Amino acid sequence: MSLTADSPHAFAPAPDPASQDRESPAGTENVNSEAGNVDKIREILFGGQMRAYDKRFTRLEERLAKESSDLREENKNLFKALEAFVKSEFEALTNRLQSEQRARDESVQGVSRELHETAKTLESKLQQFDAQTTQTHRDLRQQLLDQSQTLSDEIRRKHDELSALLERELAALDKDKTGRASLSALFSEVALRLNNEFKMPGEN
Fold it and tell me: Cα separation of 58 and 202, whole Å?
């Protein structure tokens, strides 16, 4: 609020209510006349200075208002810039987190696929191994059966050969025994003839 010499209350002393009650209408007029004279004197003495102060206060108020408006505008721009920066940083952070999440998801999916493929490969190899083991056991059993049959046949053949050989040897032994008996009789006959003791049947 600016103060001017024209304002009715500028540098005017406050009226005393008690004195107003005591004054008569004529006294009131005198007071008003004196007040008017005081205002004129004040205008003469301080009017220019008060107007200069009023202009200075007015310019100061305008300057403060402008600076306040500029400060509000600057703060508004700063808040907008800060809001835009925070928003951009938040969006960048969100995008980066989403990208990392997608990368982790893809990595997990890749690992899951690899584990699935590994499990399938392992299961296939186990099935192959089981089939090979079964076939190997089957082949071993067949080989054992074949070798057992071959061994049995060989044992039977050897037994037959030994039996035949034994029979031949026994026959040869019997033949040799018969030959020795005949040779012994022949030798006995020769001894008797040499001793003239051998007699043919029918001789006296």
Answer: 201
Report field, pTM of the whole predicted structure over 0.90: no
Distance CA(160)–CA(77), nearest Å, equals 121
The single residue listed with the structure tokens 């044992």 is 155
Please state, in angstroms and rounded to a whole number, the distance separating the CA atoms of residues 9 and 3: 9
Give me 152's structure tokens: 């049995």
% pLDDT > 70, the chain: 68
Q: Would you place residue 129 in the very low, low, confident or very high pLDDT band (cuts 50, 70, 90)?
A: confident
At which residue do the structure tokens 């004195």 appear?
Answer: 19
Q: What is the 3-state secondary structure (H, E, C) of the chain?
A: CCCCCCCCCCCCCCCCHHHHHHCCHHHHHHHHHHHHHHHHHHHHHHHHHHHHHHHHHHHHHHHHHHHHHHHHHHHHHHHHHHHHHHHHHHHHHHHHHHHHHHHHHHHHHHHHHHHHHHHHHHHHHHHHHHHHHHHHHHHHHHHHHHHHHHHHHHHHHHHHHHHHHHHHHHHHHHHHHHHHHHHHHHHHHHHHHHCCCCCCCCCC
**How far is C-alpha 28 from the chain's CA centre?**
99
